[in-house]
């Protein structure tokens, strides 16, 4: 590979790194606040979200072990 081609590639990579660094530094100001605070309330009054939460709750409850039924004693003194 010629020195000129190598220099061109290095220059292109340096430009790309500078562009990415600028992008990341611009986002760091947003990241000061936790992600969950950034999205807080974005699903308020959303019926689709409420339905998804209901279905998830039903599914989790279906995975819980069921309470065992008590067996009656044979001698009649339950």
Provide a short characterization of the protein structure.
With 78 residues, the protein is mainly alpha-helical. The chain is built from three helices and no strands.
List the helices and strands and how they pair.
Blueprint: H1 3-28, H2 35-39, H3 47-63
Describe this structure in words.
With 78 residues, the chain is mainly alpha-helical. The chain has one domain. Helices cover 62% and strands 0% of the residues. It has helices spanning 3-28, 35-39, 47-63. The model has no long low-confidence stretch (mean pLDDT 88).
Count of DSSP H/I helices: 3
Strand content: under 5%
Q: State the order of secondary-structure elements, H for helix, E for strand.
A: HHH
Give the CA-CA distance, first to last residue. Answer: 91 Å
What form results from the Cα inertia axes? elongated
Radius of gyration (CA) equals: 30 Å
Main sheet attributes: strand count, strand direction, barrel closure: none
Task: Indicate the percent of residues in helices.
Answer: 55-70%
Number of structurally distinct domains: 1
Could you list the spans in which at least 5 consecutive residues all have pLDDT below 50?
none
- Strands, count: 0
Which structural category do the helix and sheet elements fall into? mainly alpha
* Average predicted confidence as pLDDT: 88
């Amino acid at each position: 590979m010629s020195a000129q081609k190598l220099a061109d590639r290095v220059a292109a990579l340096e430009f790309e790194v500078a562009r990415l660094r600028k992008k990341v530094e611009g986002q760091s100001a947003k990241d000061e606040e936790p992600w969950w605070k950034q999205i807080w309330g974005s699903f308020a009054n959303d019926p689709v979200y409420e339905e998804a939460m209901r279905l998830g709750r039903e599914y989790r409850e279906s995975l819980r072990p069921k309470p065992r039924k008590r067996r009656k004693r044979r001698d009649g003194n339950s």
